[in-house]
Amino acid sequence: MLMNDKKVYVGPFVRKQERDNSPGNVKFNNVYVKNLAETTTEDDLKEIFGKFGAITSVVVMRDGDGRSKCFGFVNFESPDEAALAVQDLNGKKFSDKEWYVGRAQKKSEREMELKEKFEKNLQEAADKYQNTNLYLKNLDDTVDDEKLRELFAEFGTITSCKVCLNSQLLIYT
Hints:
CATH architecture of the domain at 27-109: 2-Layer Sandwich
Pfam family, one: RRM_1
Helix content: 25-40%
Protein name: RRM domain-containing protein
Structural class: alpha+beta
Keywords: Repeat, RNA-binding
CATH topology of the domain at 27-109: Alpha-Beta Plaits
Number of helices: 4
Domain RRM: 29-106, 132-173
Order of helices and strands: EEEHEEHEEEHH
GO molecular function: RNA binding
Number of strands: 8
Radius of gyration: 28 Å
């Protein structure tokens, strides 16, 4: 349907967190560059990034004394040009420094991404040690099943625990 001579789309509401924002689908114009040499200027960035398309703005962030903070932003007119610059320049070396070039993100986006990465690593570590058997030898004669369970409870869920008195062996899974 047309409203004020413009085509209108009407569809179900999808929360921002549930939208498909996988890296290949996100469109962006603003590019973040870090690990710049202290001598890198806006003109240097314009020259390097200008090969990928029209740039609307460039800034190298500086402290109160005017010294470079060694990161900056380059804003492109076209999202496709920005994506091409990221693809081509990320990981390249300039002045013996390897640049990180990526989509500029809000602080909340970065924090959410880092949190997800941390939780994924934590889960992988937990999965790695799932169903692990431990065998202990030379236990003191006073150690029984319950004592071993108490000692190892802080390290995770114990599915079975058995002290064999003749060989003094614990099986922990």
